């Protein structure tokens, strides 16, 4: 379970304080696919950064599977994030000096899985996303859709219980988005992982279990028919 309690975060802009999250609350159950919407600047990326412990709140807490991420020190947060969370970003964030396989395998290596086991799991993960045969391509030779599929393989390879996706199709054309999104959602569901996906894509909202809107610093459940 992912539990967000009274989470507040503001940023200082000169002399002004911009309150981005103000006592935001949400409870997300294991295996749920939750879409987070909200206008640009409403704090969606800030929320994901707080969930993953990349950023720290002024007050409030985030717990992932009973671990209060917001109570951990920086080194413990980094280890927790590395082991338990997978990320998919709008601009893919692949490492250009590594090939496709190395990008995926790196996550396993950071978690202590090495050698043939790491190789096999990375190849299997890439194959699930239709990337068999592309293992040794340079990432910048791939199309946007292919790069995002590599990023999804990377996000899943260490079998995290929680996946965070920040506008994963924001940089893809519509047709490509329509092939990447179902792959992300169906693999998440197959693994029983929880997915929090920031998106404006109505398709995702339809496929998600819940939609939360971030507005005026708070998360509100959007009722759906
Ligand atoms: N590191 C930061 N320093 C200052 N302001 C920030 C920082 N990160 C985000 N903000 C501000 O917080 C607000 C929310 O940003 P963000 O979470 O990126 O919104 P969204 O992802 O919904 O578009 C914006 O006004 C942004 O300028
Ligand atoms: Mg954002």
Notes on the protein architecture:
The protein has 225 residues and is an alpha/beta fold. It has a single domain (2-221), classed as Rossmann fold, CATH 3.40.50.300. The protein contains 7 helices and 10 strands. It has a 6-stranded mixed sheet with strand order 6-7-8-3-9-10, with helices on both faces. It has a 4-stranded antiparallel sheet with strand order 2-1-4-5. Helix 5 runs parallel beside helix 6. It is globular and about 50 Å long. The model has no long low-confidence stretch (mean pLDDT 95). The structure holds adenosine-5'-diphosphate and magnesium ion (MG). Residues 44-45, 166 line the site of magnesium ion. Residues 11, 18, 20, 38, 40-46 line the site of adenosine-5'-diphosphate (ADP).
Sketch the topology as an H/E string, one letter per element: EEEHEEHEHHHEHEHEE
Tally of DSSP β-strands: 10
Work out the radius of gyration. 17 Å
Q: Tell me which oligomeric state these chains represent.
A: single chain
* Estimated structural class: alpha/beta
Shape: globular
């Amino acid at each position: 379970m992912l539990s967000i309690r009274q989470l507040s975060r503001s940023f200082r802009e000169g002399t002004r304080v911009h309150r981005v999250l103000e006592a935001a609350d949400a409870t997300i159950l294991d295996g749920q696919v939750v879409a987070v919407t909200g206008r640009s600047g409403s704090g969606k990326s800030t929320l994901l950064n707080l969930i993953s412990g990349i950023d720290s709140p002024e007050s409030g807490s985030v717990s992932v599977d009973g671990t209060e991420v917001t109570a951990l020190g920086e080194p413990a947060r980094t280890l927790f994030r590395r082991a338990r969370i997978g990320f998919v970003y709008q601009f893919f964030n692949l490492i250009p000096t590594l090939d496709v396989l190395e990008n995926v395998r790196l996550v396993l290596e950071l978690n202590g899985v090495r050698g043939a086991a790491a190789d096999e799991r990375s190849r299997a993960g890439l194959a699930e996303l239709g990337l068999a045969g592309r293992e040794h391509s340079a990432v910048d030779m791939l199309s946007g859709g292919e790069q995002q599929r590599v990023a999804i393989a990377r996000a899943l390879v260490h079998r995290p219980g929680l996946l965070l996706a920040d506008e994963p199709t924001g940089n893809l054309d519509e047709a490509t988005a329509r092939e990447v999104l179902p792959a992300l959602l169906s693999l998440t569901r197959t693994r029983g992982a929880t997915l929090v996906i920031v998106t404006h894509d109505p398709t995702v909202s339809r496929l998600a279990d819940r939609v939360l809107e971030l507005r005026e610093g708070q998360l509100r459940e959007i009722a759906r028919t």
